[in-house]
Structure formats: structure tokens, C-alpha cells
# Entry
Amino acid sequence: MDFRVLGALEVWAGQDRLPVPGARRQRVLAALLLAPNAVVPLSRLAEMTWDDEPPATAVKQLRNSVSALRERLGDTGQRLIRTEEPGYLIRVGQEDLDSLRFAAGVAESRRHASEGRLERAVGVIRTALDLWRGTALDGLGTAALTRSAVRLDEQRLSALELSVTWRMELGEHREVADDLADLVHDHPLREGLHAQLMTALDHCGRRADALHVFHRLRTRLAEELGVGPGPDVARLHEQILRGEPRRPRGSGTRAVRTVPAPRPSRDVAPTVPRQLPQTIRDFTGRADHLAALDALLPPANGQAVVISALDGSGGVGKTTLAVHWAHRVQDRFPDGTLHTNLRGYGPGKPASPDETLDDFLVALGVHPAAVPTGTGARSGLFRTLAAGRRMLIVLDNANSAEQVRPLLPGAPGCMVLVTSRDSLTGLVVTEAAHRLTLDVLSPAEALNLVVGIIGPARARAEPAAVENLVRLCARLPLALRIAAGRAAAYEHASVADIVTELAHDNSRLDALSWGKDPYAAVRNVLDWSYEQLTPRQANLFRRLGLHPGPDLSTPAAAALAHLAPDEARHLLNALADAHLIEPVTHDRYRFHDLLRAYADELAGRHDSENERRHALDAMLTWYSHTAHTADRRLYPTCTRLVTNPAKPAHPHPMPDRDHAWAWFTAERDNLVAALHHAVDRTMDRYALHLVDALGFLVLMGSWEERVDTATAALLAARRSGRAEHEANALLARGEALAHLQHPDAQADLTRASTLARDVGNVHLQIAARTELGQLLRRQTRFHEALHHFDEVCALSRGFDTGRWEAVAEGNLATLHADLGNHHQAVDHGTRSATLRHQLGDTDGEACAHAAIAKGWQGIGDHDMAIIHCRRAVALGRASLGSQDETLAWPLAVLATSLLHLGRVNDAVDCWQEAAAIYTDRGLDADAATMHHHIRTADQLSAPPLV
# Structure
């Protein structure tokens, strides 16, 4: 079995691709493959499978999904997917999983490079990069899965940058220049790539082109961000202008390791510094990051300084991890451990390189009076003293690569660990630093941290309160320590008391501070990051706090801040580099709840009520208009929409149906949140626009969400005083309630029909009567349903595009089959199929052919029934949604005819596939019916008892 996650999820058995039906099963499999050969707890699987709070039946659904996966993968002996408390484990080797092959290839290439075999290193890493087929786990959706996939994508980018560095060492400047030109085009504001391209062009003798790259970058930065190039690029530009010679690379010879320069004996006394601060007693979790740092430990015969850049948001625990790990491994560095707080973020002025070098030189035995003047001289003496030594250097809280570079040793044997809220991309590009990004704790790690602080007894006494404390602190280590520390320090305060304080959005950040220590207040820690932003970046960050959804796209952020999407993209990338937001996939970002609360607080503090309202208007206009555009792509023949939202400043392109479905899938949670947000703030017109375009929830089988959004919109509709809006909301809710077999469905649909008739809206009247007829048919009230369907047929004949007439004919076909009027069923079904085909409505055409097949079954012609079922199934497989109607139902009809002809196994296969579709869409009663048919068929095919 070959599992592939470096792109869309795929499973291959030999030369055959093995489909994995159902989004839930795909997500469970992906979650297991992201942690190969390790137990994934059920809580983590649930987080990976559902974006919102998992349903009450989550554990049952997960176990069912694993059982289905085992069956699909032929794992009857449970050797592949093993049950191990508290969850499941998938056993795979490098030959079974492309991400393991990729990691092994990168590791092998590093080994070749460290041993001086750069050509071999480049070849191996290229082979590893060829395993990628696109964005990791493309299209699977949930935020937790996307975060993990982004980490894989970051590994790909790091490997690509490493390959470029090695190729430059080999003198492939001409080839690298061509590759970098494409990368610079894709990342037009990434200074490190521009610096590499300038260097490559200059080495190729294309000095004018190199200078043009710089001028183009400078112009772009000034126009779009209002800043100039950083000091590294500016320095390189000056060197090229002056024609300064650089060390030739790729001359075909290997550098010979030189004997370390002698140490100055008069001014230097032998000393072994151990400068690490105290590690914390209750360090929790971070096993993956500790292992990643362990893997970077330099070998005894290493040929380069190892640099690791550990980045993450404020309060995420970078310093804690760095110090803890450094204590664990400092015995491997016999010549000392240096540590400094560079004060890049926090009270006071950032430490200058000169200040830090003074401290390091004195720690290494240089008399203060013997420390040379000038950064260059200090840095040179430091490199001289570090040469030939094996030291660990921890540079904590850096604010830029420029602050770090003078502090780097030059000879092999040392390791440098840098922590920063900045991504320090410059170090990754120019110094081949290994980047590790720290996220918030996992749910299990966060729980363990809190229990360790308050004690197991208190945690057992208030389990619900502890769970809420973890949630409200967004699993941010600093917030968890403050909140749990307050509960531990005040014995008369329960955990529930602390949770009550945290539960109020307006005062949560106040509750997450302790005493007068500026480092023990979440708001202060976040302020230090915010203060580093440019005015334009700060304005966008505040606007993001107004967004109601769990994540947002670049175009949505642009609408909030009244920016063009390209301009917003550059500012968002800057915020992501500062770890104030988190990229979850291409052009999509999110931040944890505390950062959201902080951004919202800043908006209330710095922006007027009118400015905030204007931003929300622009965002809701963009969502409403884009949703309507996408809805028309999904339902090109449907015209029952009753609203027409305004056009935003930058309309989002929606070229075809596939793009519309992808957009709705990505924005589903945001659209639901936006509708509720609009209702809560009496911005009713946006709620009415949105509910009118959320029919895709029906295609997805999200009946409960359709009920919730329609109920909210109903309040807005009644406040508007417009009867057609009330009818539209009632219709949306009634349709969903009918599918859920809720007793209130008929009242909603009847009221919607009456209101539509009173205001003369034929579209809504037809739709409401259609849904009423469907409801009555499901209740086996066939003659009442026939009355509604006949009325609808009369109303819709020749009306609008002809779609409603096609719907009515199809419903009459199904109902006449139920009544035993099989020839009439075939006639109505044929008319429906013809109309649907003329309209290009393939989903409806699939349903029509299934209805025709039902008629032929009743007549007794199962061969003809199978022909129409096959046509329906083929159309249904191409359907984007509603596959309970377009695919599961035709499969069930097909199974009946196959069984009648004695093809029992084929019939069971159809019922099994139909059952899986019904289960995935939450239609448990229909799934149970399919399983009943399967059991009955199995009994028919079983050998007789003897």
C-alpha cells in the first residue's frame, strides 16, 4: 500500500488508485498519516475531523470511520491501523508513505552535504522534492489538518531553499538565476530571494540585471508597503555597485579546513561559561520540537555551524522550549554555553550586537580593557575564540536577522539557537538556518500543563472548568500559566471562578495578567509585537479583529480594510512573519482567540464606531455578493433568489461551477458566522442577502446549519417587514426541517406558501409547494402530495427557464411510481429528463433517470430499469453535492433490479456504497434501510443449512 499526502490525499495499491469515499474517512486517514507509527488520541482525531465542536456522537463516528477504512484498505487483521489507547496508530514505513520518503531524502542530502558531497546532496534533495504533487493534503479542509499540512509545505520550501544554496556553492549561478526568477515572481516582496537572485546574476556577469532586480524591489516595497529594502539587500547592492570581488564559488575545488587561529594567551584566560538561565520545573509537551532540535545537533566532524531559528507568536513558549532543550544537551558542548536576551520584543531598547559581543568576549576570558572597538573587530575576535571550540549559543528574543549575524561563529562545531517572533527568513536564506515554528499547545499538552500547576486533585474536582480554562486561554502557554497559576495561588478561588472572569470577551485580557511583572500579562506581551508594526500593518491587524469567522481569505481581509487584494496579501504576509496571524493554506489566515480578542480590543481603542461599522459593511457586502455569484454558478437554471446585493469594490472572480463549490467549501463557516453577526448587529439586509445564497448547505447535507441560519434570518426578515423575505427564510428552514423529519416542517412550508401567494411571488410559491409535496410523500400521504405536485406542474409550465417544470415532472414521476401508476411514472420521468438535459442540469437529470427506472421496475422490465440507473449513476458521480439524491438513490434503485435478476453480489455493492453516502450526510434512517437490504440479500445468497 502506498499512501501519498504530499498533494491531494491518495492511496495506491500497486498500479491501481484506491478511492477513499467520504470526507470524514479521508480526514481520519490523513490525521493518522500525519503522525505515522504514533498513537493519535481520539480527541486529536476529532479536532482534525471537525472544525467546530465535535458532535456528541464523535467517538462513535470516528470508530465507524476507522472500521470503514480498515475494510476499504483490506486491513481485516488490523495490522495496518491498530487500536491503541487512547486512539489509533497506523503502521507504515518509508516505502509506504511519501512524506517519510521525503524526510529521509532531505536528511540523506544533508548528510552528503556535511561530508562535502554537494553534487550528490543536490541530486538526492531534487529526488525528494519530486515527490510533491501540490499543496499537502490539498482540499481536506479542517483548520487542524490545514495547520499540519502547512508544516509539511514549510518543509518543502526549506528544502527548496537549501537546494538553491548548495547549487550556488557548486557554481550553478546561471541555472539558479533562472529558477530564482520564477521564485521572485511568486514572492515579489521576499528580500532574501531577491538577494540570492542578485548574487547569482552578478556571478554570471549580469551586473546590470542584478542592479535592476534591486531597483525593482525597492520600487515595489516603496509603493506597496511604504518602506525601503533591508540592510542586507542594501549592503549587497552597494557591493555590486562598487564591483567588490566576492569569494568565487564552484571552482571545482573543495575548501581545506584550516587550523584554528591561536588564542591570545596574554588577555584570555581559559574558562568554560555556562550562562543558561534556570529551566522551569513543569515543562510540558513539545516532543516533536525537542526531537527536531535533537536531530540538528552537529556531528563531531561537522563542516558548518548549525543554526536553528525557533519562531512563534508572543507567549507561545519559545524561550521556555529553547532553555529546556539547551539544558538537556549542553553536556555535548564541552567548551561552554552562551546565552543572551536580545530584548527584541519587550520593555527597553533592543540589545545591540556590540553589547552582546562585549558580554560574550568577557565570558570567554577576554579582559574588558582588551575588548576591541567596533562591531567588526568584536565579531572577528569572537569568531576567533569560537574556532576550534564546541559551544552552544542561545540567542533569545531576536527582532531581526541583522541583530543576529554579528553574533554567529564562523567555524564548525558550534550550534546557535535563535528565538524570535519574526520568521527570520533572512537567516534561513543567507545562513542556511533551520526554521522551526512553534504553535500553541495541543489539547492534551495544554491539559497536562494546567493539571501540573493546580494539582491532579483540583483538576479531578472541576474537570469541566479545567476544560473551559484551556479553551478560553486558546492553549497559549503564557495564558495557561497565568490563569492556572492564579487558581493555584488563591486557595479560596475555584477554577470555575477564574473561568467566569475569562468568559467575558471584554475583560479576558485583564484576567490574564498577574501582579506588576510586565512579562506576566498577555496584553503586554502582545503589545510588544503590535508596536513593531507599520501603520498600515497595524490598521489591517485591527480590522482582522472585526472578522466573525474562524479564518479569512486575502480578498475578505482586503474588503475589511478597503484595500486591493494584492496590497492586502503583502500586509498579511508581514503579519504572518510577525506571528500575529497564522497562514493555514494559500491566501488563508487565522489567529487564536486571544489574538482575536486583542485585535478587537485595539479596534475599539483606536478606531471610531463609524470606521468599524464601515469596515463591517464592506466585508458583509463582499461576502453577500460573492456568495450570490457562486450560487448562480452552482444553480445556473434556478432563479428563486429574492435579493440582489451591491457590488463590492473588488469583486471576487468565480469562473465556473468547480470554483464556486471550492469557494463555498472554504468559506462555509465564515458565511454562517457572517450571517449570525449581521443579525446580532441588526445589519439585517446582509442576513437576508446571505440566507438567500446558502443553498449549498443543502448540497453538503448540513441540515442543522441550514435550520440555524434560516432561523436567524427569519428574525431579520420579520424586522424588515417584507413578506417575501419572511417566506424565503421559512422556506429555507422548512426544507431543512423536512429532511430532518421534524414535525415543524409542514407549518413553515405552509406559511411560506401562503405568504408567497399573498405577495404574488411565483418562484417562492412553486418552491414552497414543491417542498410540501416532498414532505407529504415521505409521510406516505401520497394523494395530498399529488395535489401539490399537480398544482406546481400547472404553475410552472412554461414559467421562467423551465427548471421548475422539470422539477415538477420529476416529482410526479416518483410519486406515480409510489402509487403504482408505473406507465405514468415513465412518462413524467422522461419529460423531466428531457427538460433537465436541455437546461444542462445534470444533477436533476440523474434524479429523473432514477425515477424512470422506478417506473420500469414496476412494469417488470428490469433490463430497461438498469439502463436508466446506469445513466443516473454516471451523472451522479460527477455531482458536486446532494449525492444522497443524485447517486445514493439511483444506486439503491439499481440494486433492486440487480437483485431481481439474481446478481446478489452486485446488488450488495450498490447498497453498501449508498449506505456510506447516506451515513456521511447524516441520513441515518436511509443508511439503516440500505443495511437492512444488505442483510436480506446475504440471507438469500447464504448456502442452505445441512
